[in-house]
Amino acid sequence: AAGSQIGMIVNSFTNVTVAMIIAFSFSWKLSLVILCFFPFLALSGATQTRMLTGFASRDKQALEMVGQITNEALSNIRTVAGIGKERRFIEALETELEKPFKTAIQKANIYGFCFAFAQCIMFIANSASYRYGGYLISNEGLHFSYVFRVISAVVLSATALGRAFSYTPSYAKAKISAARFFQLLDRQPPISVYNTAGEKWDNFQGKIDFVDCKFTYPSRPDSQVLNGLSVSISPGQTLAFVGSSGCGKSTSIQLLERFYDPDQGKVMIDGHDSKKVNVQFLRSNIGIVSQEPVLFACSIMDNIKYGDNTKEIPMERVIAAAKQAQLHDFVMSLPEKYETNVGSQGSQLSRGEKQRIAIARAIVRDPKILLLDEATSALDTESEKTVQVALDKAREGRTCIVIAHRLSTIQNADIIAVMAQGVVIEKGTHEELMAQKGAYYKLVTTGSPIS
Fold first, then answer.
1. Distance between CA 277 and CA 363 in Å, rounded?
2. pLDDT in tens, 70-86
3. Which residues of 16-40 are buried (b: 16+ CB within 10 A; e: fewer)?
4. Where in the numbering of this chain does the ABC transmembrane type-1 domain appear (predicted)?
């Protein structure tokens, strides 16, 4: 719609130009008198455009908030109804809808004033042109038909100009939307997966060194998440991060995957600074299994194959990954086997089954580094045992970083790093840390939070 209206605006201004050429060819004096009124029309249109653009921006923000409240209420309808908060959401929605309503009234007033002003100028111009045209006929011998020709041409141009200004509200909305769209297109992320530059090497080992890493999230610049994290992992070792919520465990994984870069310090991978490593190359050597596995609405086979998009994965590798993830027997018991559709977000499967598919997806790319972020914390006891066996097999021969709240799942780790306030306060094996009788010992024996 906006595209067709832009065409109409161009057409209107073309009509104005042609009409004025015709008018000047018959009587330049009369045309100049009439032309004196055009700046007032332009001022009215410019004022209208400028003010309505500001209102369009406010409208957009208000309607986005309305959509957010509606989406939250509908997507969590059971919770909303269960706690009896329907009235609260209705009131919040009414409050947000009040803003565009008030804006609409202001817009109507501005539009009405500008339209009335423009019409007033046109009537004055019409009167002045006939008055001056009569003067030219009686005093300078101008033929009366020329007066009507000039005025007709100018009326045509004024009509075209008015039609162009009628599209001002649509133009204001389109301008705001286009500005946001081009802002997104022009945005250059500091860490881009499409950037082909960066270091790559053949013999990827999986040695990791966090060297005095300090980090704050851009959305929370006043909250220091990592405050000098330093820990090293040799190839093939398993490092377990332990600590209370918010101490920086998951953040360390995000730095390793280069979703962010540390503000200070370095993350070294095989001796290479992660900031200089090619993002695609780095992530192709990392597999991750998170607390809530994300599955796509396609077959089990396709979900596993999504783990490695660098090449065509033969069915033999899919089956091998499924066997290693303790998934194969379950899949073969299904009527459609590996062609079974998992449903939207894996809705046809249990949490444990979804987790094992996620493990197989991580294994199929044969990563040198495996990240396990609370991979068993949301499972029941029976599912946890099955998934833990799969994770133990997946860890073999790989550098592994484990984040877990259940201490029973990390006691066999080569290094257990106890974190508090973004730093490692203790590290060692389970036996070494128990012998120290520090924060880890307290956590194991009493369950007291780490401070």
1. 22
2. 888 887 777 777 767 77
3. beebbebbbebbeebbebbbebbeb
4. 1-173
Which strands make up the sheet holding 208-216, listed edge to edge?
224-233, 208-216, 264-269, 272-273
Picking from 48, 172, 53, 174, the residue whose alpha carbon sits closest to that of residue 115 is 48
- CA–CA separation, 292 and 187 (whole Å): 30
Model's pTM, two decimal places? 0.64
Per-residue pLDDT band at 3 (split at 50, 70, 90) = low
Query: Taking Cα atoms as reference points, which of 257, 108, 284 lies closest to residue 191?
Result: 257
* Range(s) of the chain covered by CATH 3.40.50.300: 208-446
Contacts of 62 (CB under 8 A, 6+ apart): 96, 99, 100, 103
> What are 400's strand-pairing partners?
238, 370
The backbone region for 413, taken as left when phi is positive above 0, alpha when psi lies in -120 to 50, beta otherwise, is: beta
State the amino acid at position 146 in one-letter form.
Y
Q: Assign domain 208-446 one CATH number from 3.30.590.20, 3.30.1540.10, 3.30.1600.10, 3.40.50.300.
A: 3.40.50.300
Confirm if 387 and 376 have CB atoms less than 8 A apart: yes
Residue in the structure block whose two tokens are 């881009």: 192
Long-range CB contacts (< 8 A, 24+ apart) of 179-188? none
Question: What does the pLDDT look like over 381-416, one tens digit per residue?
Answer: 666 677 777 777 777 788 888 887 777 777 888 888
- Which residues are within 8 A (CB) of 156 and not within 5 positions of it... i.e. 6 or more apart? 15, 19
CATH 1.20.1560.10 range(s) for the chain read 2-186
Q: What is the DSSP string of 333-372?
A: TSTTGGG-B--GGGTTS-HHHHHHHHHHHHHHT--SEEEE
The Cα-based distances of 445 to 265, 310, 419, 449 in angstroms read 34, 46, 17, 11
Identity of the residue numbered 9: I
Is the CB of residue 252 less than 8 Å from the CB of residue 228?
A: no
Domain 2-186 architecture: Up-down Bundle (1.20)
